[in-house]
């Protein structure tokens, strides 16, 4: 088992590590710099393959939007509405339910209970498949649901048709998410990246063939979406069964043991993540009630698409810091956990500022990638400043959510999200957008305020966190879910 802090070559590095594998207290700029580079290397060894894979998977969505967007404004609005409202609702809920697997697999791997990883993954498969059946009516009745939410009839009808066609893609997520978490917890991330890359290349070819050569339009886009998603899922499953002998010991009835307790943890994870994902989804819904809804939805969707590209990077960092936190807590290393969190937050903020600068420079030009409509391009340009600010906030917020998943704080973050997003940000956006008549800019500006408040509160919580106490709670969780471990005993001995 890895000691948790690999000793890199270089004078003085060994002095930073105690006998138990955790850091000693770091004092002085020279030691801080050394820890910064050690943690940077450990984080990005995990994060880069995950980021690459997520960019490839998000590229599947984005490239589909680009191909469909050149069919016409109505088609672009329809697929954007399906992906932003129906797809995001389902994606967020299932990803959240799967995040319980990330917490438990990461902490179990750190504590040396590798044999439990396959059981946790199977338990999550069962829960997510059951959840998918319950959510299925949202896809079947997407058109009337969107009409009830106030969307235009022609857009809602076309979006509803597309939603039914992508039901197979939706069900693939039930197996995809737990399998990814299983692999990420063990830092087996390179294979995920290669699978994502091959899938993206094949998807582009299928879109060209089905939409332009066979002239299947939206139906062709949906078929490509379904085939690509199941290809990714089956490839990951094949790798788990064939090459993960330590964590995978075959199907087990243990997957059904204590399943309701696992459901409760999954629901806490789902609520936390869904409150974040649905918050930005609600901007699209509210924009659909504005005058000239097609232009409003199209311009906002293009901005959200670009924001999503940057967001995918930080969802990758989210997963990596979740792995780092859960592994180090499982190993009983409070200082390593704390330093890893601080380094990741600092680097993420720096990256967010860089993307903000890029958007401000290119705000009058990037819309041409998605649409040929001059009207939509002008509308997107006006939203450039809001997109730039959002990119900075979205660089830090997912990282803190990853820390919450790694530490098992999902319920606490869910309460903060309710207050900041739905009691403050959303009402403020509605007030500015409709009452003050600022339109899309008012909606987005108010909701940015909610994200800013949430980020500040979570940063305060990180600053106040007692990481030794978090190690003790992790050990108790491992005793409950996977048997006894001596993490607390080793922590007490070391202090």
From TrEMBL:
Enumerate the UniProt keywords alphabetically: Membrane, Transmembrane, Transmembrane helix
Cellular localisation: Membrane
Q: Look up the coiled coil feature and give its residue ranges.
A: none
Q: What is the membrane topology here? A: Multi-pass membrane protein
> What Gene Ontology terms describe where this protein resides (cellular component)?
membrane
Fetch the InterPro entries from UniProt. MATE_euk, MATE_fam
Q: Which residues cross the membrane?
A: 125-146, 158-177, 189-214, 220-241, 262-281, 339-362, 383-406, 412-431, 443-463
Q: Annotated Gene Ontology MF terms?
A: antiporter activity; xenobiotic transmembrane transporter activity
Q: Where is this chain primarily localised?
A: membrane
Q: Name one GO biological process term.
A: xenobiotic detoxification by transmembrane export across the plasma membrane
List the protein's name: Protein DETOXIFICATION
Q: Which organism is it from?
A: Crotalaria pallida
Q: What is the lineage of its organism?
A: Eukaryota, Viridiplantae, Streptophyta, Embryophyta, Tracheophyta
